Amino acid sequence: MPDMTDSTAPGLRLAGLTKVLGGRTIVDDLSLSIAPGELVSLLGPSGCGKTTTLRMIAGFLAPESGSVEVAGRDVTPLGPERRPSAMVFQNYALWPHMTVAKNVAYPLRVARRPRREIAERVAEVLELVGLSHHAESRPARISGGEQQRASLARALVQRPQLLLLDEPLSNLDAKLRVRVREEIRDIQQRLGITTVLVTHDQDEAMAVSDRVAVMNHGRIEQVSTPGELYRAPATGFVAGFVGASNRIATLDLGDGADGVEYVVRPEDIAFAADGIPARVTRVLPHGHFAEVAVSVRGHELRAYLSGSAPAVGDEVRIRIERALRYVDGRLDGVHGAAVEEVAA
Ligand SMILES: Nc1ncnc2c1ncn2[C@@H]1O[C@H](COP(=O)(O)OP(=O)(O)OP(=O)(O)O)[C@@H](O)[C@H]1O
Ligand SMILES: [Mg+2]
Fold first, then answer.
1. What is the pLDDT of residues 52-86, one digit of tens each?
2. Which domains can be identified in the chain, with CATH numbers?
3. Does ligand 1 lie within 6 Å of residue 23's CB atom?
4. Quick one: which atom of ligand 1 is closest to the CA of 45?
5. Ligand nearest to the CA of 42
6. Ligand 2 mean position, distance from CA 45 (Å)
7. What's the Cα-to-Cα distance from 145 to each of 87, 142, 171, 191, rounded to whole Å?
């Protein structure tokens, strides 16, 4: 791949990408800029258009309108093999009859690289993903996590400027998923490669990303660091999708506002002697904390409480220490202590 990098340009820039499939707008005027070396996740519910967006970035799908720029170069008219990007698919897509080394070598053989160069690059990348000892194994003989790493190696051997990962961990069990995502993040940072990760798993997105783009119905609702996304979700949708939350629609706040909603994180509810009376309806112990449901004036709220857990039926008093206020679905303010009126 020729290196035509413009070091001042974003690693990836999507401008006004739109895709219509089956008469429906699946990706809707989507714009996003990613810095060189940054890992950004596309996070959203099933069917929101994540894979469609990634396929347009990779060149497998042509947009109705909009453009894709990689490192300052407009690649919109180019097919996937001519783009400086490489994709890792959810199902790994390894050839079963080829060894791991042959699978990894495949893109370089297609590109007709010299045999010696292929051998060197394959060895180097297998070392990078920790698979040197499985170079001669067939995919069926290695574990799911190892297959995933082989698939990553096959992408990286192309030395892409842009790495695209579509739900790369969804076939792995929960424990392995956590380990492999850390490995992927580690390799991505060591190589400093601009990366787009598609996932519907918020933990995964929050754990490995520099920034997370939350998608809904073909649009990006918010692009932020994981911390910001959790602390100040820009829309009611993001608040509900990222992290656990209580949503409280208020009817009478004195301001007569319609379409007002409060979102309260479970850890922002505390016991307080002078708080609002509440009754404990459910207790789920988690070891170091308990998940407690309380009924407050007709609202059921979920709280995370550390210390000694109450029992079902206990009459307690609680205080809401922080609440996010949404007007017509958009963040309107963050309330600190004394937001008793939320549960009025
Ligand atoms: N070729 C097609 N023709 C018609 N509709 C399609 C086509 N491909 C995808 N869609 C629709 O586009 C929507 C978005 O699909 P996409 O695969 O991008 O979603 P996703 O966000 O990746 O979801 P998931 O998390 O389930 O993978 C879905 O409703 C899907 O049914
Ligand atoms: Mg998908």
1. 999 999 999 999 999 999 999 999 999 999 999 99
2. 12-238 (3.40.50.300), 245-343 (2.40.50.140)
3. no
4. 25
5. 1
6. 9
7. 17, 8, 9, 20
